[in-house]
């Protein structure tokens, strides 16, 4: 399986059981804390984690884990951009279909290799009954009928092209930002938490205007903050910083090379 071909790749046992327990405790603490900067979506909350958070350090800092992820997604220069605790509340409906890419009109969108990926680290067993991920394979490479069915709609209906990705505690799923995805409903009485880690897998070959935009993410060290000595997993950029206009609409004739 290739992330360039399918748009996603599974990483079984990405986290050790002891790490899962610690991250679950941290996720629960974050979920009970203030929601400053939270992204609230239908039936899902994303609570931001900065580069200095213990959850990020536990999941990203170990070199062997970054190396495994880099191999799995064929990364040439893997750099962390942001992170979140994803909370799927008990008895909550499905997260509607969407994709996370934000720069569709830029030529980088037509590259086969992803400009950004998200890595979902599951902290409990997850299946269709408690909020498992649903995806449309190949939807990162070309516009498909599925895009038209969900365009402009907050739809959470099943799609004929979808597959469901179940996970065990400690499993992770890496996914191209361009991939069309959703979740199932959580029909249980327990919240389903996960750690989301966002990366640029080919940082040094991204166009400078994308790097200048991404380097400003509030999860990254600010100008007066001191990053750890072993900080090569964080992006660097020496040029002028500027923001790009967000563009989340998939072009009608979209097709990656």
From TrEMBL:
One of its GO terms (molecular function) is iron ion binding. Keywords: Dioxygenase, Oxidoreductase. It comes from the Bacteria. Its cofactor is Fe(2+). Pfam families: PhyH (PF05721). InterPro entries: Phytyl_CoA_dOase-like. PANTHER family: ECTOINE DIOXYGENASE, PHYTANOYL-COA DIOXYGENASE DOMAIN CONTAINING 1. This is Phytanoyl-CoA dioxygenase family protein. It comes from Luteimonas gilva.
């Amino acid at each position: 399986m290739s992330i360039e071909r399918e748009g996603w790749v599974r990483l079984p046992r990405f986290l050790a059981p002891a790490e899962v327990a610690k991250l679950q405790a941290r996720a629960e603490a974050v979920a009970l804390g203030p929601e400053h900067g939270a992204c609230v979506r239908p039936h899902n909350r994303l609570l931001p984690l900065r580069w200095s958070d213990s959850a990020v350090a536990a999941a990203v800092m170990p070199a062997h884990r970054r190396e495994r992820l880099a191999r799995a997604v064929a990364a040439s220069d893997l750099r962390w951009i942001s992170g979140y605790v994803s909370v799927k509340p008990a008895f909550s409906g499905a997260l509607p279909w969407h994709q996370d890419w934000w720069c569709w009109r830029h030529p980088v969108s037509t590259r086969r290799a992803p400009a950004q990926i998200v890595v979902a680290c599951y902290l409990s067993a997850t299946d269709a009954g408690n909020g498992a991920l649903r995806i449309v394979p190949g939807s990162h490479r070309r516009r498909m009928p599925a895009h038209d069915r969900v365009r402009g709609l907050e739809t959470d209906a099943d799609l004929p092209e979808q597959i469901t990705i179940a996970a065990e505690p400690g499993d992770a799923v890496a996914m191209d930002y361009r991939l069309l995805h959703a979740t199932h409903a959580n029909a249980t009485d327990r919240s389903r938490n996960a750690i989301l880690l966002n990366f640029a897998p080919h940082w040094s070959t991204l166009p400078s205007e994308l790097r200048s935009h991404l380097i400003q993410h509030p999860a990254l060290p600010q100008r007066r903050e001191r990053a750890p000595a072993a900080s090569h997993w964080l992006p660097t950029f020496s040029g002028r910083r500027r923001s790009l206009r967000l563009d989340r609409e998939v072009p009608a004739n979209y097709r990656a090379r």
